Amino acid sequence: MKLDNIISKREHKTIYRDGDKCIKLFHEGFLKADVLNEALNQARVESTELNIPKIHEVTMVDNCWVIVFDFIEGKTLRELIDENPKKTNEYIDLMIDLQIKMHSQKCPLLTKLRDKMFRKISLTDFDLTIKYELQTHLEGMPRHNKVCHGDFRTSNIIVTPKDELYIIDWSHATQGNASADVARTYLLYLLADQKEFGEYYMNKFCEKTRTARKYIEKWVRIVAASQSVKGNPEELDFLTRIVDVVEWE
Known about the structure:
The structure is a single chain. The strands form three sheets. Strands 1-2-3-5-4 form a five-stranded antiparallel β-sheet, covered by helices on one side. Strands 6-8-9 form a three-stranded antiparallel β-sheet. Strands 7-10 form a two-stranded antiparallel sheet. The chain is 46% helix and 18% strand. The protein is built from nine helices and ten strands. It has two domains: 6-70, Phosphorylase Kinase, domain 1, CATH 3.30.200; 75-244, Aminoglycoside phosphotransferase (APH), C-terminal lobe (Aminoglycoside 3'-phosphotransferase, Chain: A, domain 2, Alpha-Beta Complex). Helix 3 crosses helix 7 (195-209), helix 4 (113-122) runs antiparallel to helix 5 (128-139) and helix 6 (178-191) runs antiparallel to helix 7 (195-209). By secondary structure, it is an alpha+beta fold. The protein has helices at 32-45, 77-83, 88-103, 113-122, 128-139, 178-191, 195-209, 213-227, 233-244, and strands spanning 6-10, 13-18, 21-26, 55-61, 64-70, 75-76, 146-148, 157-159, 165-167, 174-176. The model has no long low-confidence stretch (mean pLDDT 94). The radius of gyration is 18 Å and the shape is globular.
């Protein structure tokens, strides 16, 4: 295992390429449970019809946990957008089509999205009245069992030279209501101060799936609350303001 070709560096983790393998090294102190959960999620999603890198090994190197999986040759949709900004909407359409395909899949062993969000809302700093309201709202939402990525964005989609689309980074994967997954992607655009593209994404997704926008918006407060648990200080104020909104108009 060679750790000399860095292809990406993020907070708490570094990603290397070693031939046809990708090595994700989690920095020392990263929780073992989180590493194993990510590997397990990805291994479980391998049973679906989606293109994802296959897990080969979970091990330790110098007291750091490592996940080894297929290296996928190509560029992320984020990179393609940066290179061709005039084609942003076209690439967002590709992302939406892939997300719709993902939501058509079932993976019964994944954690239930509802349970995860209920637990995360309990861990927030909101007062008990708001927590109760959010959890009651969550319990009243329709129960589905679709594969949800939890962090579906252009930087987590790789386009190969053969125009195949691969989805990476399954650490937040669950099974549940697809509209919660869409609400999360919409929030990512807002947090990145890309409201124009967020609106295009939301409206286009609703058009393609014949989903009422109001229905997805009902998930936005719930998703914002759950995201606030690990949200960075810059995001927290924005997420809190969304949660404080009683109803989306």
